[in-house]
Design brief:
By secondary structure, this protein is mainly alpha-helical. The protein has a domain of about 100 residues. The protein has five helices and no strands. It is elongated and about 75 Å long. About 5% of the residues are buried.
């Protein structure tokens, strides 16, 4: 039994140390880390925007004057809060955080390829370049010859 286990471990160790496989796994790991960083940055930006929205709400409750710009910002942020709570919270309730983040990334990229933004605006860069656009996702998927759009 132990020799079979050793053979299986040796097989997978040999497989994962092949240069092509090692490079492919490393590429996926770098992409995952970049996307996880984007989500954490988006969450921080949403927290700042929510704090500003709370300040506007406080002014409204105190019967202070609110500008038209503040009303627009408040409305946009409330929509973003509802959108993120409907998407991020259920996915992150999965017991393993790594799996929840991975599912969120997959869902986001799948819907981005269909020109649907799943998350609030702070999760997407303003310049709309690279992988985070539907065009960038299609370009990245076309690089992979095994994937069919």
């Amino acid at each position: 039994m132990k020799s079979l286990r050793k053979k299986i471990i040796a097989y997978f160790l040999g497989l994962f140390t092949l240069p092509r496989v090692k490079e492919l796994i490393g590429g996926y790991a770098r992409m995952f880390l970049g996307e996880a960083g984007r989500y954490s940055t988006g969450i921080k930006a949403e927290a700042v925007d929510t704090r500003e929205t709370f300040t506007i709400l406080t002014k409204y409750i105190k019967k202070e004057k609110i500008t038209r710009e503040e009303k627009k910002k408040f409305k946009k942020q409330v929509i973003d809060i509802l959108r993120s709570s409907g998407v991020i919270v259920p996915v992150m309730l999965i017991p393993l955080p790594f799996i929840g983040t991975l599912l969120l990334i997959i869902m986001d990229h799948l819907l981005l390829s269909m020109h649907i933004q799943l998350l609030p605006d702070s999760f997407y860069p303003k310049e709309k370049t690279g992988l985070l656009t539907p065009e960038g996702i299609e370009k990245d998927l076309k690089k992979d010859k095994n994937f069919v759009l």
